[in-house]
Amino acid sequence: MSREVGVKKWSISRMFIYLFLALISLASLFPFYWMFVMATSPSSAYNSIPPTMIPGSQLVENFQKVLGMIPFFQSMLNTLIVCSVVTVVVLFISSLAGFGFAKFRFPGKNIFFFAILFTMIIPPQLGLIPQYLLVAKAGLLDHLFAAMFLFFLNPLGIFLMRQYINQAVPDELIDAAKLDGCSNFRIYWRVVLPIILPAFATLGIIVFTSVWGEFLWQFTVLRDPSSYTIQVALASMNTAHRVDFGMLLSGVFWATVPLIVVFLMFNRLFISSIAEGSVK
Question: What are the tens digits of pLDDT across the range 174-190?
């Protein structure tokens, strides 16, 4: 009898947990749904009372307006190039630096590590003017490389990789590879890299999405429409007198699709990384 009561209480508590998670999920997805509704509706629906909650039929028409105002596909390609290059470089540098900080001893190791972490609390806006002057003097304005190189060194990525490698890669495995005659880089490439793929997926998603949403620095160094990233191109559609919200949110909707695709592609590795962390 007591067992049946315990099962009943457990089932009720589990039901409330699932109900709470479902409500949180709906609340998280609502902004994306509302963006889709506005992307399929005329601009007047943005300020309608009561608010419009049913998708309209102007998704194609609004997107055609976007194509007529900005080089959308060129901007998307520029953004994909910037985000992909930055993500690959950050993953390589962060994992290599994290491996060094986790498994090697050298003078000033802790000082260097905390100095890198200290840069995380410095607002990026403080360095905007000197960084712009350096880029201008180097003749890199309106070049995609100017929108990339500032993000190659990622303190958060180094910290995450250092912590993950420190827990996931046993010291005995490193010692065994050294006894077999492996160099430090070969140990990193052949031993460490296959183990930290889940952490790669996690950090890759974080970096890709953060660079995709970056606006201030890209807006500062990219002035030629042919070099615009999608964030700068969408911002250029705002006019001083009138904003077509249906057109603008249509562009935002299609600019969000690649982020969803990237997350779905690496979702399994992302979840496995979280699961391994919780088990550890």
Answer: 988 888 888 889 999 98
d(Cα 244, Cα 45) in Å, to the nearest integer?
A: 10
Asked if 99 and 193 touch (Cβ cutoff 8 Å), the reply is no
What the block records as the tokens of 69 is 């105002």
Cis peptide before 50 (omega within 30 of 0): yes
Residue 238, SS3 per DSSP: coil
Q: Among all chains, which residue has been given the structure tokens 């990219």? A: 222
Report how far apart, in Å, the C-alpha atoms of 11 and of each of 1, 4, 6, 35 are. 15, 10, 9, 36
DSSP letter assigned to residue 175: H
**8 A C-beta contact, residue 56 and residue 249:** no
Nearest to 66 by CA among 262, 264, 274, 244: 244
CATH hierarchy code of domain 70-236? 1.10.3720.10
Which is nearest to 188 in space by CA: 92, 85, 88, 84?
92
Instruction: Identify the three-state secondary structure at position 65.
Output: helix
Mean pLDDT of 65-88: 91
Phi-psi region of 149 (alpha: psi -120 to 50; beta: other; left: phi over 0): alpha
Is residue 83 exposed (0-12), middle (13-18) or buried (19+ Cβ within 10 Å)? buried
Half-sphere exposure of 60 (CA within 13 A, CB side): 1
Joined together, the tokens standing for residue 223 give: 């002035």
At residue 241, does pLDDT exceed 90?
Answer: no
Greatest C-alpha distance within the chain: 81
